[in-house]
Amino acid sequence: MSPPASTRARTATLSPVIDRIVGSTGVLEAINEMGPLARAARHADPEDAFVALSLLADRHDSDPLATYLAIYAMADVDSWRVDEALIGYLGHESPGMRRHAAWALSRRGASHEAVAPLQAVAGEGGFSRMMAELALENWADERNELPAKPRFAGPGMRIAQVLMQGRVDADLTGAGSGDGGGLVTLQVGLAEQLANSDAVADSYLVTRRIKGEGKFAEPRQAIGEHGTLVRLDFGPEGYLPTAELWAHRAELEREVRRFLISEGPFDAVHLRFADVGTFAAARAATDLGIPIYFTLAPDPHVVIAAAEKEGRLDRQSFAEADLESHYLFRAWMLEWMLENAERLALLPRRNQRQQFKDLLNIDIDEDGDRFRVIPEGIDYTLTSRSREAASAAAPPAEWVTDLVREVEALPEQRRGLPLMVTVGRLNRIKGMHRVVAGWQRDPTLRDGFNLVVIGGELRNPSPEEMAVMDAMAEETGGRPFADIGLILMGNQPHHAVSDVLAATIAGVGDTIGPHGIYICGSDKEEFGLAILEAMGAGLPVVAPIVGGPSTYVEDGFTGALVDTSNLSDLVEGMRWAASVRTSEVRREAARRIVRDHYSLGAMAEALVDMYGAEIPGTAV
Question: Which residue from 38, 268, 389, 514 has the highest number of Cβ atoms inside 10 Å of its Cβ?
């Protein structure tokens, strides 16, 4: 007997999606078919869907991405043959196949036959452990069943932000080490600004307790007068890079859940980035009925698009790239947040509507109130204070004195030169090695500026930080950094960075020449807080054209927007900055833009308005 016409029609919708995946060569193009493929498979005849997806999964050697998409979609097919196939994939020689099979099983009913193979995958550690644990945990249903407290009935909202990247403290002494950076600076300052709002009763910033690292091991710390930093205790002793936290997702999720229950009730949990902190906190909060808010950026999509354009990523090489960067899982996370977040904050981007359509296949105009464009901000008061101190006749600030000492140790002919400065964590996507390369390869820049790199843990660097320093050494031909005018200052407290930027424009005696320049060599910046701080100091900036900087850097006036992946473009931007560095008109315009439009206070007000839109009487 032939299947009913309605079943044949539903099955027919699956073939075009598979044809689009097989017929295309693009990585991002195929990833955007993940949702449509799963939906078509769910509504198709189960046996037909299984056969079609099995054929797609057989393409692993030539097209691993197609295989992973097929495995993902299998999770929605109601057939015992799917369970049998997925269990078989758990023993595949490819770690990517094993991971994705475990993830698919986590979305299906319990299978006794899968338990032992899943335990073997969990034993591999890392991201594989997380994927396998999702299935085992879901099947065991061992979650804490304590109910969340009812939504806060008193005056003012109760808000929690979650940040698992970097070393986080209220004084921002570790902001630039490890995976930390501008995000740490932003969220600490924002926690304080939110707490100062009349519409907010309590503001928490939740991070990881780093046992064995002094104040970073303390369970709680005040942020200003009203904010609170809470450090959750999970994982081994010592600092862990974000990539290594996936293996501890279950512990992290339990601790977030315990925090939300014990310190609650909460009106909003704000999350950023498709990382393990967001994944764990979103699961815990939604399970407890707490609204989640998400800062949506097209990441990893924009990274994938750039890697494809540059020839660093294709369908054949996707398996290896996905093992390291978890592209498919993180792309799914963005889809999940789009469905489950109460509202979504967007960072300003040029051609934003079209970018989100092209990269994420979503129309942000369809539900305009749900998407709020909210610029990030900096503490302009701190910037002004540093600038005033640098202009005074008093001795330089403590951290500037350290910089002066470093410059005085350089060869005599390099003393008195102005500075070229770059600030950020030592991660390859931040492009510090490209800044070094551009500076070294142009004689005018090399002979006219000393280069100062601020960021990174130099005494005990992570493997990623060591890789960046090795790349810098390669660009300098292995010569001692000091001999050529390259100074690595490492991670510095936030106020120290502000003081150094102010000294870069004012100069210091006969040691540091005035009117320096600021360079950001990042692959892209979602917004670029360090760039804003450099503009607030009055420096001409060179910034990536990809991402947020194009919304506040006036190309050719306050800064140069360049393709930072192209060394020639980066050098051209450096030359431009050097040519306009003494312009007072440019300097004052840059400061005015930051002061008037990009303050932390304004950002906090916009977020409070977004959170309060769901609570009568609380919106600003």
Answer: 268
Backbone angles phi, psi at 610, to 5 degrees: -65, -45
**Mean pLDDT of the 353-370 span:** 85
CB contact set of 547 (below 8 Å; sequence gap of 6+):
302, 349, 524, 525, 526, 527, 528
**The token pair that represents 305 in the structure block:** 């698009």
The residues, any chain, with a CB within 8 Å of residue 475's CB and separated by 6 or more, are 433, 436, 437, 440
> What's 550's DSSP letter?
G
Largest separation between any pair of C-alpha atoms in the chain: 94
Q: With contact defined as beta carbons under 8 Å apart, do 455 and 547 qualify?
A: no
What ranges in 581-617 are assigned the alpha helix state H? 584-597, 600-612
From the list 614, 605, 154, the residue with the least C-alpha distance to 341 is 614
**Which amino acid is it at 278?**
T
Average pLDDT over residues 373-398: 84
| DSSP secondary structure of 197-261 | STTEEEEEEEEE--TTSGGGG-SEEEETTTEEEEEE--SSSS---GGGSGGGHHHHHHHHHHHHH
- Give the full edge-to-edge strand order of the sheet including 450-454: 486-490, 450-454, 419-423, 517-519, 541-544, 559-562
Residue 620 banded pLDDT, cuts 50, 70, 90? very low
Q: How far apart are CA 172 and CA 188, in angstroms?
A: 8
pTM here? 0.88
Query: Tokens 């005849």 appear where?
Result: 45
Q: Which spans in 312-462 are helix H? A: 318-325, 327-340, 352-360, 380-391, 398-408, 432-441, 443-448
> Do β-strands 371-373 and 343-346 pair in parallel, antiparallel, or remain unpaired?
parallel
Do 359 and 386 form a contact (C-beta atoms < 8 A)? no
Per residue in 169-214, pLDDT (tens digit) is 998 888 777 777 788 889 999 999 999 999 999 999 999 999 999 9
Give the separation between CA 353 and CA 359, rounded to whole angstroms. 10
Spell out a b/e string for 75-112, using b for 16 or more CB atoms within 10 Å of the CB, else e.
bbbebeebbebbbebbeeebbbbbbbbbbbbbebeebe
Model confidence band, residue 140 (pLDDT cutoffs 50, 70, 90): confident
**Residues 244, 210: Cα–Cα separation, whole Å:** 14
Encode pLDDT of 148-181 as tens digits: 555 555 679 999 999 999 899 998 888 777 777 7
User: How do residues 88-107 score in pLDDT, each as one tens digit?
Assistant: 999 999 999 999 999 999 99
Question: CA angle, 586 as apex, 582 and 592 as ends, to 5°?
Answer: 130
pLDDT in tens, 5-47: 555 555 678 999 999 999 999 999 999 999 999 999 999 999 9
CB 277 within 8 A of CB 164: yes
User: Which residues are within 8 A (CB) of 233 and not within 5 positions of it... i.e. 6 or more apart?
Assistant: 209, 211, 219, 255
At 92 the three-state DSSP class reads coil
Q: Of the candidates 426, 439, 450, which has an alpha carbon nearest to the alpha carbon of residue 570? A: 439
Per the listing, tokens 């994982």 go with: 235
Cα(328)–Cα(303) distance, integer angstroms: 12
Q: How far is 304 from 126, CA to CA, in rounded Å?
A: 22
